[in-house]
Structures are given as structure tokens and as C-alpha cells.
Write a structure and sequence with these properties.
Helix 6 (258-269) packs across helix 8. It is globular and about 60 Å long. The longest helix is centred in the first third of the chain and has 14 residues, at 90-103. It has helices spanning 63-67, 90-103, 111-124, 197-201, 204-212, 258-269, 281-290, 328-340, and strands at residues 34-41, 44-45, 49-52, 70-72, 75-79, 85-88, 136-145, 158-167, 175-179, 217-221, 229-232, 235-241, 244-247, 274-276, 293-300, 304-313, 316-319, 351-353. The strands form 2 sheets. Strands 1, 2, 3, 4, 5, 6, 7, 8 and 18 form a 9-stranded antiparallel sheet that branches. It has a 6-stranded mixed beta barrel with strand order 9-10-11-12-15-16, surrounded by 4 helices. Strand 5 (75-79) and strand 6 (85-88) form a beta hairpin. The chain has 2 domains: 17-167, Aminotransferase class 4, branched-chain amino acid transferase, N-terminal domain (D-amino Acid Aminotransferase, Chain A, domain 1), CATH 3.30.470.10; 175-340, D-amino Acid Aminotransferase, subunit A, domain 2 (D-amino Acid Aminotransferase, Chain A, domain 2). By secondary structure, it is of the alpha+beta class. 43% of the residues are buried. The structure holds 2-OXO-4-methylpentanoic acid (COI). 2-OXO-4-methylpentanoic acid binds next to loops.
Length: 354
């Protein structure tokens, strides 16, 4: 493969960035001017190109549309206080992307292409990286099966695309969640740890039911007994129980969240005890009764930290105490933001400054 720093860029004739209201961003509403596209054909990746963002032309028989071979990543780039731009935890995102693709029997773009492609795409669209507090440029690399053939088979052709767009934080207000014991997101041996499209599509129906009942998200439980908490909606979930930061352990039904990992690291750095261990519904109920649960929150790239103010278990809505600047969720969120913006030292080597 040729040197990827030579990825050709076909620039837009006129940028759309002036049309964006950066003070009123909505998640997923805006896409930046350019995208990276690269095809996998005849057993190898072709040369990537950066081109103006545009609709794709694809066969209605493309395998992804029928049997769900689609995998994505969710990453962010930040405008730092000194004006530089930084992509957060690039390597860790690549590792997860590769794991997800392998689980779905899909071609894995080489790491160099992923890295150089992101660096060049973000540099090309640097005017799209917001300066507003809490906002960032969301990066969405994805691969789908593009072979035109509707027989049930592993695709021999794939398309790797990266699109980007400016976003605010996902949940501005604390959320209400409902413990879900009728539907499951993922089971042992399934694809729960992979960022494949089907995991998200399959979650819509139970989430829609929970929304009709006045909740924002469901708290997923394990598929075998529906006794243990797994994730919260599209995020990992964390609790402060007996002053310890507790989160369910990674498994094949839980996504290896990069925000989850970052927050655990930061909490330990602040001197908190952290535990990755099963959390049962019964433990949560007891903790509410005994007043030993202080905080609950979702953790994800899009949301960063999503404070939870209500957890519904069975027919009971349990309320969490109000959060303030000293709450652990705000302390770790603040610590994360300071590293990303270059306001505190990047001691863990998380920033890839462009
Ligand atoms: C993320 O948090 O980045 C996700 O991928 C979840 C969602 C926006 C699909």
C-alpha cells in the first residue's frame, strides 16, 4: 500500500460550515463537508480517498441491507485551549473496531489507514470542530458489506467510510431509566460486545415502550436470569455504592466502553476505590433502602456522562440524590474534559494531537 499521508483529497467547491448553528447543535444533525471512502475488493483494500460528503450509489442487493454485516465506531475530536485539535484514544477505538469486525466476519481496515484517514479527514474539516463548551466533532468510522448478492453468505466486498459532524453532549438533563426484565439487549455468546448495527436496532422496541411509560432509557439486565444489570441504553452504566465506583464487568454481552475505561482510570486517580463486578437488581434495591447508593450514570462517547436521577425497579421509582460539583460523576467528567482540552496534563497518553 502507498503511503497514506498521500490520501488524495477532493475538496468541496463551497463549504457548508457557515450554515451550522454551533450554539444550538443537535446530535447527528450536521455532517461535515468531507468523508473518507475505501473499498475492499478482490481480497484487498483499495486506496482510500477523501471526497465531498455525498449520497452513495449501492446495489439494493448489498448484503449489509439484508443480513446486517455493519459495524461502526463512535469517536470524538476536540478543539484544545491552545487551538490544536485532538482525537481522543485513537488506538483503543481501532482495537475495538477490529474486534467488532472480526466478530461479524468482516474485512478489517488496516490500522494505518484508520489512523491516517482520521487524521487527514479531521484536518481537512478542521473548521467543523466546535469551540463551544462540551461540544466536539463526532467521528463515525463504519464498514458495511457491499457485495451485491442476496444469497446468505459472508460478503466478499466491503466499504469503509468515515463521516464526521459537530455535536453537543447527548443528555443535557439527568435521565430516568427503567430496569428491563422482559427484553434483552445481548446474551452470552452473542454480539453484545461488538458495535454492530443490529445491537442498536434490536434495542429500539423496548426503549420505545419505556419512553411511553415516561423513561428515557432502559437499564438492560442479563439474558439468563434478568437479575444483573448490564448497560444503560446505548451506554455503559456506573454506580456509586458505599462510596465506591462500581460497574458491571466486561463480558461478551457488554460493550468495552472507552469512556467507561477512561472514567474508571480517572476515578482511581482521584483516590476512589473502583470495582468491576456484577451488580444485581436486588443489590440496587437494598442500596436505595439503606441509602448507600449515591450516584448512577451512563458513560459513553456520545453522552460522556449521563447522570441518572430515577431508576424504576418493578413498579417503584427510586430517586437519586441531586448531583453537585463534588459528585464523583462531575469530578471525573471534569477531569476527562480537562485532559481532552489540554487544560491538564495528558498523563495517560490519550490525546492524539493533530
Ligand atoms: C456513542 O456513544 O458514541 C455511541 O456509539 C452510541 C450511540 C450514539 C449510537
Amino acid at each position: 500500500m502507498e503511503l497514506l499521508t498521500d490520501i488524495p483529497v477532493k475538496r468541496v467547491y463551497r463549504s457548508r460550515v457557515m450554515e451550522v448553528d454551533f450554539n444550538n447543535l443537535e446530535f447527528g444533525k450536521y455532517v461535515s463537508d468531507h468523508m473518507l471512502v475505501c473499498d475492499f475488493k478482490a481480497g484487498e483494500w483499495q486506496l482510500p480517498v477523501i471526497v465531498p460528503y455525498a449520497n452513495l450509489s449501492m446495489s439494493p442487493a448489498s448484503l449489509a441491507l439484508h443480513y446486517g454485516q455493519t459495524v461502526f465506531e463512535g469517536m470524538k475530536a476536540f478543539r484544545m485551549h491552545d487551538g490544536h485539535i485532538n482525537i481522543f484514544r485513537l488506538e483503543k477505538h481501532y482495537e475495538r473496531f477490529a474486534r467488532s469486525l472480526e466478530r461479524m466476519c468482516m474485512a478489517v481496515p488496516p490500522q494505518e489507514m484508520f489512523t491516517e484517514g482520521l487524521l487527514k479527514l479531521v484536518s481537512t474539516d478542521k473548521s467543523w470542530v466546535p469551540q463551544q463548551a462540551g461540544c466536539s466533532l463526532y467521528l463515525r468510522p463504519f464498514v458495511f458489506a457491499s457485495e451485491a448478492r442476496f444469497g446468505v453468505k459472508i460478503s466478499d466486498e466491503y466499504r469503509f467510510i468515515i463521516i464526521t459532524g459537530p455535536v453537543p453532549e447527548l443528555y443535557a438533563k439527568p435521565i430516568r431509566v427503567k430496569v428491563e426484565t422482559n427484553y434483552v439487549r445481548a446474551a452470552k455468546g452473542g454480539t453484545g460486545f461488538a458495535k454492530c448495527g443490529g445491537n442498536y436496532g434490536g434495542a429500539y422496541y423496548p426503549t420505545q415502550l419505556a419512553r411511553k411509560q415516561g423513561y428515557d432509557q432502559v437499564l438492560w439486565t442479563d439474558a439468563k436470569e434478568n437479575k444483573f444489570i448490564e448497560e444503560s441504553g446505548m451506554m455503559n452504566v456506573m454506580f456509586v455504592l458505599n462510596n465506591k465506583l462500581v460497574t458491571p464487568p466486561l463480558s461478551d454481552s457488554i460493550l468495552d466502553g472507552i469512556t467507561r475505561d477512561s472514567l474508571l482510570t480517572l476515578a482511581a486517580g482521584l483516590g476512589y476505590e473502583t470495582e468491576e463486578r456484577p451488580v444485581s437488581i436486588a443489590e440496587l434495591e437494598n442500596a436505595f433502602r439503606n441509602n448507600t447508593i449515591r450516584e448512577a450514570f451512563g458513560a459513553g462517547t456520545a453522552a460522556v456522562v449521563a447522570p441518572i436521577d430515577t431508576i424504576c425497579i418493578g413498579d417503584t421509582d427510586y430517586m437519586l440524590p441531586a448531583y453537585g460539583p463534588q459528585s464523583l460523576l462531575n469530578r471525573v467528567k471534569d477531569g476527562l474534559q480537562k485532559i481532552r482540552l489540554g487544560l491538564s496534563e495528558d498523563i495517560y497518553g490519550w490525546n492524539r494531537v493533530i
